[in-house]
Amino acid sequence: MLLARIGRPATRAFLPLRSSALRAFSADPSAATAPTMDFDTSMSCAGCGEGIKHTGLGLQPLFKCPEASRKTQADHVLLPTPLSTADLSSLAAVASSPSSSPSPFVKYRALLYPYRVAMANGMSDDKYVEIVSELDDRIKEVNGGKGFEATPLTYSAEQNVYIKDESNQVAGSHKARHLFNVMTYLLVLDSLNSPSPPLSSSRRLTVASCGNAGLAAATIAAAAKWDIDVCIPDSADPEVVQALRDLGPHVNTIICPRDVPAVSHSAFGSVSAEGAADPTVAVFKNLIEKHGSIPLSVQGTECGLAVEGVQTLVFELLDQAAEQKQTPLDFSSLFIQVGGGALGAGLFQGLQRAAAGDLNVVSPGLKIPRVPAVTTVQAEGNAPLNRAFARIRADGKTSAEAAKSKEDYMFPWQNPSSVAHGILDDETYDWVELCRGMESTSGSAMVVNDDQIRAANAHAKAKYKVNSCHTGSVGLAGLMSSGSRREGPPSIVVLSGVDRSGARSFSTSASDLGPTWVRNGITYRRLESTYDPQVLFDFNKTHGTSPHNFIPDEPVKAHLAKLATGETTVWGAFAEGGELVGFITGEVGGGYWLETGDGEDSTCFINEFVVSPEHRGKRIGVNLTSMSVDPDAGIFAINPDVKEMYTTVHVGNITSRTAFIKGGYREAMTYKDAMRDRNTTVLKFSKNSDIFPRGNSQTMRVVGVQSGNAVDGIDVGIFDFEPLVRSQKDPRALAKSLKYTTVANKTFPFTPEERQYVLGLRAMRLENGNEYAEGNYKFGDWCAQRVNDLLAEAGVDKSEVALIGSHGQTVSGHPHWEFGDLSVIAQKTGITVAGDFRPADVAAGGNGTPCTCTYDSIMLRPDIGEKKWRITINIGGTSSVTFCPPWPEAGDEEAEKMTPGGLDPGLGVFFMDLTVRAIDPTLEYDDDGKMARSGVVNEELLSEFLKYKYYQQDKLPIGVGPDDFPETLWASWRAMAQERGVSDVDLLTTFTELTARQIAMACKRFGGEHITNGKTDDVLLRGGVCNNSFFVERLKANMEDQLSVKIDRIKTLEDLNIDEDSWENAMYAMFGYLCYNNVYNFVPSCTGAARPVVGGRIAPGENFHSIRLTSTPM
User: Fold this and answer.
1) 817 vs 237, 810, 839, CA distance in Å?
2) What is the spatial distance between Cα 1089 and Cα 1068, in angstroms, rounded to a whole number?
3) DSSP strands (E only) in 612-677
4) What average pLDDT score do residues 466-476 get?
5) Cβ–Cβ contacts within 10 Å for residue 773, how many?
6) Are 162 and 321 in contact (CB under 8 A)?
7) Which of 368, 543, 601, 990 has the fewest CB atoms lying closer than 10 Å?
8) What's the CA gap between 731 and 734, in Å, rounded?
9) 481: closest CA among 333, 310, 319?
């Protein structure tokens, strides 16, 4: 039961304790007493409702619900019982004395539980402020002079968001707020219990952490001179481990590997690591339960009071926003990263208190009209909260109901993984409070992938100059992936967790050092002049010495020392933890120049180039050589006087030579080097070179934009394409698959009015031809708007994008005519555009379709050595099929003769979706095929549909256009069904069967000897229809029947590790990328053309001056 409010207890008996380690915090209590105040110091459990308070045996620390060990089905979190407004006003009046302290724990003390306990038990306000201030002063001593003060708050009009920078907090993260509050509470109890010995003399502290919480707890414990055991995983950041060890003798670090029964190195000897999926939590709990340790941790289930400390962040943020004239003081959303959940829970509670008026009592005028929508963000590789919230909603329960059966909703995530190492808690401990926050504010739970996290982290550093780690950038990743909210109240994002790789991975003057690249988890950047040259020399000596590379100590040291003067430029590569994994150096002059050119100062020489062998295979060498000559990041941007870059390599050092060639350098000559008794190759890059363009030698960022036959919106994606590999026989053909990474992808749905406008164009019935011209320009403007929106939402600067590949919207299919004027897109975005791809294929005798054959033949072919062909099926509004042979081995002439085939079988989901809308106008599609599954195929109708003229074509190429299956045809077929008494549900089932059967029949009819008669069972399906289990079943059955083969399962793009949601945008980005690089982007064996072509036109944008097209032999 919840006990009534109490006064100061008559007696304060306490457990016998030993000598003091903190007498400075427990000065003569007679000077610190004040009249006892009647405040409620009870706590209540959010999980079971039980209460507990300071009474009986004395002022012992209260952290965990007493019912937790008995009522194991619930998740117990012990929280301070809310005070009435009258009591809070009384506390605020006592705390009104002025203080010079900048600490939020002084400014907002009346809102915090430790102050309530202190005042209820007779401590004076001055004494309380003294305890807080003295602890803060000691923190400064162990934290490089940094104590608690307000952290920066920045408003971005572009993203309509307030960014709170907690990377500048004590110990580098918000975690210190949680734990300072807990330590204050312990010190208050010690002072109130004086002259009894303090708790620190007999009971150790402990914390379980992935990194930041452990460092915050250790910093505060070291300041208080209180022994602490910090339980961290063996994957913890080495920088954190070293920082823990640097804090001195009061901090004991316990490394907790997975799959071990016990750990040592504790003050109690061996401690069990069993009892929880996370070994750090298991050891932490065993230290508490078996050895009496006190939790100085952020897990609400073990230390509920920790959640309250971070409320000061909310109070401080609202204070700052008011000072910055945010009017009204209203916010739309809170995007917050979640691991264990204490940060999100504390922010939600703080916002609740601000909305309820608690903050207004202490700081008049600071009240918000509502709690912003709580949006929790977790990494894709560890999302237990997202899973729990989805299950709660699916079960139709509330968070309070779910809390009583924890095992059904919150359980350990298997194999947590993400670049956001700090939120890899396999359980979200404060999940109930966060779910309550989401459901009460109409919020949501999001997941973001590692690429989105990396992009947000880079954006935080470049845009906001916040040195946050990947973990601290996850909330920003959520905001960026959810779309911009430029109208209405702003959002809130907290960036927290300092990037401990420090100057090696981030500099507040990064803009002066040029752009930073992040590729395959490796960060590339120019190094600042203060970077330690000895670190570079040692790395070079360790990893660069080889039979092909001799490193003379003194000349190399002298060269690297010139980094400090700017005479030497160094570009470095760093792994995710900040580890140096490679670098390249250049020095102007360097002993090479053109006597008939611009002189010695117009050249730069690459002296050192080295990559750690442990990190090879990630294209680090190629990216470093590319960066050295990049127009924005390389030597030509740093020193405009430099016109050429040179280097030399041992002729036998094929790895280095290849990296330079792929990076854009070319061989100038190879000569007999008598001085070094070897043959030496000279490599060169000229600033104005047309031979090795930037786009063909390094990763290239391309936007893909298109609108499909379903006419549901405009799709935009941002992709990084790796360098292509050309065929030795034909340099305009590829030798292998392309590789690309999805940076961002989004569908921008049409409004009903926009959709009807597009359908009107596609109907080809407008009498005034000017309307078509207007439609072409208008659709180009729409495409440009969506591209600009996604770039802004993803935090991608336009200078990073080389090209847009645009397909636009098909208006006519015979011949093909795409709307979305390229020049309009180029002018509205400022980015060069490649598009209008199909006419080149048509001019060569082809059909200009299917485009999917190009993507399939490049990305989806079976690997070299495979025997079976693959059937790849794409279904949107219409359908397409490609018959893909395996990639041939070099020199295998027979295999090289096998070319892909394909066609457009006909319908996709267009008629299915129209029928669903006819059945229920609120629905867009048949979810999982449930509606179609409930109906019956009308075979008579199906036979009539298959007599349609499109299906009677018997000669390839066969390509579909919007005029082949217009909405008017659907209406006439539906009328036919109604005349025969066929319900719309049965019609839907029949259309579903039609799409599946026509595809299977087309495969049998046109697939050829490698497809039919049981020759292949390798079938891959893509499109949203993959989520329609009924359709997949019918496709499988029809394919088995028509091809006389048993198919184990229909594959999807996930089987090939390709993103399903973005592939079609990637396809048109690819068309542009291939056009840009003068590589064939149509497959004549599919389209019917007489020869392969490079299709497309290019509309210059503002970046066209930096683009050089590839010239290849005809």
Assistant:
1) 55, 6, 9
2) 20
3) 644-650, 666-673
4) 92
5) 12
6) yes
7) 601
8) 7
9) 333
Sheet (strand 51-52) strand order: 51-52, 43-45, 78-80
Give residue 344's Cα distance to chain centre: 18
Confirm if 454 and 518 have CB atoms less than 8 A apart. Answer: yes
Given a cut of 60, whether residue 695 has pLDDT beyond it is: no
Q: Residue type at 837? A: F
Q: Is 129 helix (H, G, I), strand (E, B) or coil?
A: helix
Q: Specify the amino acid at residue 875.
A: I
Task: Give the pLDDT confidence score for residue 426 in this predicted structure.
Answer: 86
pLDDT in tens, 949-979: 999 998 888 888 777 898 899 999 999 999 9
Average pLDDT over residues 732-740: 86
984-1006 vs 967-979: helix crossing angle, rounded to 10: 120
Higher-confidence residue of 699 and 81: namely 81
Q: Taken in order 568, 569, 574, 577, is the CA torsion positive or negative?
A: positive
536 dihedral zone (left: phi>0; alpha: psi -120 to 50; beta) = alpha
* Percent above pLDDT 70 for the chain: 90
| Nearest to 531, CA basis, from 561, 511, 508 | 561
User: What angle do helix axes 175-193 and 113-120 make, rounded to 10 degrees?
Assistant: 10
Q: How far apart are CA 210 and CA 254, in angstroms?
A: 12
pLDDT tens, position by position, 475-522: 999 999 887 566 789 999 999 988 875 433 333 233 457 788 877 678
Q: How does pLDDT run across 513-537, given as a tens digit for each residue?
A: 778 887 767 889 999 888 888 999 9
Helix (H) or strand (E) holding 314: helix 311-323
Look at phi and psi of residue 1110 and say left if phi exceeds 0, alpha if psi is from -120 to 50, else beta. beta
Tell me what pLDDT residue 592 has: 65
CB contact at 8 A, 817 and 811: yes
Token digits of residue 442: 């109409």
Give the model confidence (pLDDT) of 297-307 as tens digits. 988 778 888 88
Return d(Cα 481, Cα 464) in angstroms, integer. Answer: 17
Q: Which of 1023, 1096, 1035, 1099 is nearest to 1060 (CA)?
A: 1023
Distance CA 91, CA 378 (A): 38
Residue type, 698: Q
Round the CA-based radius of gyration of the chain to a whole number and report it. 33
DSSP reduced 3-state for 909: coil
My answer on whether omega of the bond before 328 falls inside 30° of 0, hence cis, is yes
Q: Strands 644-650 and 666-673, how do they pair? A: unpaired
pLDDT for res 193: 85
- DSSP assignment of 767-781 equals S-HHHHHHHHHHHHH
Looking at residue 79, what is its pLDDT? Answer: 84
Burial class (CB in 10 A: 0-12, 13-18, 19+), 651: middle
Q: Give the separation between CA 439 and CA 399, rounded to whole angstroms.
A: 8
Give me the helices (H) in 889-1022, please: 893-897, 910-919, 930-933, 939-945, 967-979, 984-1006
Element (H, E) at 518: strand 517-519
- Helix, strand or coil for residue 500? coil
Beta bridge partner(s), residue 382: 379
Place of tokens 């990073």: 800
- Distance CA(351)–CA(367), nearest Å, equals 9
Tokens of 19: 């000598």
pTM: 0.50
Are 580 and 572 a contacting pair, CB within 8 Å?
A: yes
The angle at the Cα of 1023, spanning 1020 to 1024, to the nearest 5 degrees, equals: 130
Residue linked to tokens 């550093």: 461
At residue 141's C-alpha, the angle toward residues 140 and 142, to 5°, is 95
Alpha helices per DSSP H over 952-1103: 967-979, 984-1006, 1029-1043, 1063-1076, 1084-1087
Peptide bond just before 631 cis, omega within 30 deg: no
Those residues whose C-beta lies under 8 Å from the C-beta of residue 947, and which sit 6 or more positions away, are none
pLDDT value at position 8? 27
